[in-house]
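Sanity check record (used in CI):
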Amino acid sequence: MSRKGTLTELPCGKRSVLVYCPSAEFCKAQLPIAWICAGDEVRTTLEQILLQLEPQFGRTCAPFCICSVVPAEWGRDYTPWPVPSLWKSGEPFTGGAKDFFELLTCQAMPLVQKRLPVSEQAEQTALLGYSLGGLAALWQTAQDWHFGMCGSISGSLWYDNFPAWFAERIDGFREKKVYLSLGRSEEKTRDPRMQQVGDCTRRAAELLHSCTKQSVLEWNSGGHFTGIPQRIAKALLWLFRSPQ
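Expected output for Alpha/beta hydrolase:
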């Protein structure tokens, strides 16, 4: 099965924005849009995601655009504040999410809005990511009016001090639509920090349930690196699903 929509890359300062737009038949009105926090291999991952998404457009979910700012440095762009590395010889997480999302909202979003027929309404705009990208998506959505939908797929919610921060800012998700997922084996690790991911994700789901009627926690089979495109596609289909 071949892709029907277009996938292009637009220059944006020192970076670029990878942009997917559905086929022309769906571009007669303003489209919803999803911003994905992904790594350098986002083009390959997105191609796999689209094979699952496009057959659902106009059937189980509304057609939508997908964008991603590239390249991204996981340990800088998707971390809210500095914390030590998970490994003794590894690079520390440097906490550059504030600068990254300033680029996304102040430069990348206006650029895409000028080029594509996309909606500027928060309820039609999603922010999601995988691993540290999922952590960053929750962190930004809690404090940003641009995003009315959020997806954290295998999110690194074990991140130092994040559970307490999230609990204090749970009201930022009121009336928003939030998708969480985690692999069943992800908390079964030797690393004491990462072992907390299951409990942290369950607690986040409980807090979200208390403030919005549009939240879900889905459990997937496998560990952190199992079926990444499939997990992201599931999140997108849930966020953009057509009303029953």
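Strands lie at 6-12, 15-21, 33-37, 65-70, 125-130, 149-153, 177-183, 215-220. If this sentence no longer matches the regenerated tokens, the check is flagged for review.
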